Amino acid sequence: MNKARRKRLAEAAELLEQARDILEEVKDEEQEAHDNLPESFQQGERGEEMESYIAAIEEAQDYVDNAYCAISDIA
After folding, report:
1. Is 74 in contact with 9 (CB distance < 8 Å)?
2. What digits encode the pLDDT tens for the residues 37-58?
3. Residue-level pLDDT at 60
4. DSSP class of residue 1?
């Protein structure tokens, strides 16, 4: 692989790191919002919805981590 393509892969890896950081921040904010709900709401529809958002964000983080690792293996 030539230098230009390696550089583009490094840029992609950097963007994935930024995406990972954003996902972590959003997940933490959603978790904190969930934790600050009264317990009755945490157990209700709204709390369950928030938990599903958190799980979806965690899944997205896994995909980003996998992509980052794949790029790191190539570069």
Report:
1. yes
2. 999 999 999 999 999 999 999 9
3. 98
4. -
Tokens representing 8 are 């583009």
Of 43, 25, 24, 22, the closest CA to residue 34 belongs to 43
In this structure, the chain runs to a length of 75
Crossing angle for the helix pair 45-74 and 3-35, nearest 10 degrees? Answer: 160
Q: In this structure, what token pair is assigned to residue 49?
A: 């919805």
Task: Output the DSSP codes for 19-36.
Answer: HHHHHHHHHHHHHHHHHT
Please determine, for residue 63, whether its predicted confidence score (pLDDT) is greater than 90: yes
User: Residue 4 above 80 pLDDT?
Assistant: yes
- pLDDT-above-90 percentage for the chain: 92
Decide: helix, strand or coil at residue 37: coil
Contact indicator for 53, 5 with CB cutoff of 8 Å: no
Q: What is the pTM of this model?
A: 0.88
